[in-house]
Specification:
The protein starts with a helix and ends in a 5-residue tail after the last helix. The longest helix has 18 residues, at about 180-200. α2 packs across α3, α7 (about 150-160) crosses α8 and α10 runs antiparallel to α11. The protein has 13 helices and six strands. It has two domains: about 5-175, no CATH class; about 220-265, no CATH class. Strands 1-2 form a two-stranded parallel ribbon. Strands 3-4 form a two-stranded antiparallel ribbon. It has a two-stranded antiparallel ribbon with strand order 5-6. The protein is mainly alpha-helical and about 270 residues long. It has helices at about 5-15, 20-30, 35-50, 60-75, 90-95, 100-115, 150-160, 170-175, 180-200, 200-215, 220-230, 235-250, 255-265, and strands at about 75-80, 100, 120-125, 130-135, 140, 145-150. A hairpin with a 6-residue loop joins β3 (about 120-125) and β4. The chain is globular and about 65 Å long.
Length: about 270
């Protein structure tokens, strides 16, 4: 089974509660021929098995021990020097290099702690993914060594990111709403697509776009962009099929005229 077919089967078998470890491993394996998704999951198993917690530890004690192992002893940290590298979105590369994007380090933390009996949720904070213990009122930033953040600190971060906006308690609440695993994976692939596009790597961007539509086939604008990219790399039949699908969903789109032209063979 190819990584793509395994990911497709995984998405069909689950709603929003998609196993993050296997899904992220499938993405990394598809992007790196020869890499085994099973082996990536085993790497996560090994990371968790190497962390020793006392019986029934308190949450703060468990977090302190986990943070010490991952960030102090093993040296996991955010990659500030080559932030935009596609490798920062590949789970196996993040494990091996111990560097990654906020969202991949968050995913790793969620999956390592899940194996230790703890439950963390992803927080789609604007521009900087975070995590939160499921039943606690504080947040962690794996990009900066598992730093603990409170709502007041996040309000300051939001104010800096949106200096013209009114940042009140309700704005912080919206910005710190938990995301589903499906939403997390959408953001991973969106980041990866953007990274490939900045490198003018259309085949890579196409793969990420296809995965975005696997995760959410209602993204009609994504389907239109995928069709355009497929046409650009000479995959005309596939590109036209995507554009026809988009047009069926958006018959009054301002772009309908050129899509019809393409479907009619490009005649002006």
């Amino acid at each position: 089974m190819t990584p793509r077919s395994r990911l497709t089967a995984l998405l069909e078998a689950h709603a929003d509660d998609i196993p993050l470890d296997v899904a992220a491993a499938c993405v990394a394996a598809e992007e790196q021929p020869g890499v085994s998704s099973d082996r990536i999951v085993e790497q996560l198993d090994a990371l968790a098995a190497d962390i020793r917690l006392p019986p029934k530890p308190g949450l703060t004690d468990a977090i302190a021990r986990i943070n010490h192992r991952l960030f102090t002893e093993l040296g996991f940290s955010g990659d500030r020097e080559s932030y935009d590298e596609p490798a920062n979105s590949f789970l196996d590369q993040v494990i091996t290099r111990r560097r990654g994007l906020p969202i991949l380090l968050s995913l790793l933390y969620i999956e390592v702690t899940r194996r230790l009996g703890l439950s963390f949720v992803g927080i789609g904070f604007p521009g900087h993914f975070l995590i939160r213990p499921r039943d606690a009122d504080f947040f962690l930033d794996p990009f900066t060594g598992g730093r603990i953040l409170r709502s007041t600190q996040l309000q300051i971060m939001l104010s800096r990111r949106f200096p013209r906006a009114i940042i009140d308690d309700s704005a912080v609440t919206r910005a710190t709403a938990p995301v589903t695993n499906r939403q997390l994976l959408l953001r991973v692939n969106h980041n990866l697509k953007a990274s490939y596009l900045r490198r003018e790597d259309l085949p890579g961007a196409i793969r990420a776009s296809e995965r975005l539509l696997l995760l959410d086939d209602s993204r009609s604008e994504e389907r239109q962009h995928l069709g355009q990219m497929l046409l650009s790399v000479g995959r005309r039949e596939e590109g036209l099929a995507e554009l026809a699908h988009y047009l069926a969903l958006n018959p009054t789109s301002p772009d309908a005229w050129w899509i019809v032209r393409e479907l009619n063979g490009g005649a002006g």
